[in-house]
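FAQ

Q: What does a record look like?
A: Structure on top, sequence underneath. For example:
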């Protein structure tokens, strides 16, 4: 199946406008599964180009406390992989924003990986990012995602060897997620100084867009990574707003956050 062009088009549009593409993350089901589509649309109104839809998982080892707690709340609210795909389909009916399914491998394997790829594409998902899928063991999942026309987004970290970066470049499509620091997700005061060198190493291996995540939480961070990358990923700052806002204020506050990140507030 031919892949969707939405991810590529969103990066191209941002580049043509002279700005850094904004990628935002939502844990599906927090605060309740039925609220997720409206929150996603608020992010789009604020200027988000790409949406990462997080599949809640009981042991999110790469995530800091904000997203860990969001996953816990979402699971307690009854969120399943099926509900995540239903949310994606509802968002797609109302939006042309690019959608990336963001997950650990375990929930997807339990669902059935080939079935997951088929159903995700049918729901309007454009790509899949599996945080704990080792790129050295990714050949079969990559084949399944390719077969169903899904982009494959892999992580590159400051500790990645040249061999691992070569595999990331070989298997990725859509974009490469550049992890700004070792450790877990979460808001930070500054962007790690080593990420620019990592971006340089990746540029030598792939022409795909590079998007920097882990710790991006304010406009200054987006401006900084925009000097050497194509996109900025904001997750914990979004989910902190979800957790701290009254239900009636959620859409307004999320739209405002995106405008602040884009410098259009």
């Amino acid at each position: 199946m031919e892949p969707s062009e939405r991810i590529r088009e969103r990066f191209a549009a941002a580049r043509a406008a002279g700005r850094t593409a904004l990628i935002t993350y939502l844990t599906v089901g927090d605060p309740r599964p039925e609220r997720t589509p409206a929150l996603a649309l608020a992010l789009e109104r604020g200027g988000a180009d790409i949406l990462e839809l997080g599949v809640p998982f009981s042991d999110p080892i790469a995530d800091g406390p904000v997203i860990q707690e969001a996953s816990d709340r979402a699971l307690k609210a009854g969120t399943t992989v099926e509900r995540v795909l239903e949310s994606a389909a509802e968002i797609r009916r109302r939006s042309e924003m690019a959608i990336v399914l963001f997950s650990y491998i375990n929930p997807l394997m339990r669902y059935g990986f080939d079935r997951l790829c088929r159903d995700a594409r049918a729901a309007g998902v454009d790509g899949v990012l599996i945080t704990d899928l080792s790129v050295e063991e990714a050949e079969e999942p990559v084949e399944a995602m390719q077969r169903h026309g899904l982009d494959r987004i892999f992580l590159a970290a400051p500790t990645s060897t040249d061999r691992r970066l070569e595999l990331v470049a070989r298997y990725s499509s859509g974009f490469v997620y550049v992890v700004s620091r070792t450790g877990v997700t979460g808001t930070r005061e500054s962007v790690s100084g080593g990420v620019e060198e990592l971006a340089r190493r990746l540029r030598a291996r792939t022409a795909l867009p590079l998007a920097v995540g882990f710790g991006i939480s304010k406009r200054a961070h987006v401006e900084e990574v925009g000097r050497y990358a194509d996109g900025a990923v904001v997750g914990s700052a979004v989910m902190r707003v979800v957790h701290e806002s009254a239900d009636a204020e959620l859409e307004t506050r999320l739209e405002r956050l995106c405008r602040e990140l884009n410098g259009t507030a």
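Q: Is there anything notable about this one?
A: The CA atoms of residues 5 and 126 lie 8 Å apart.
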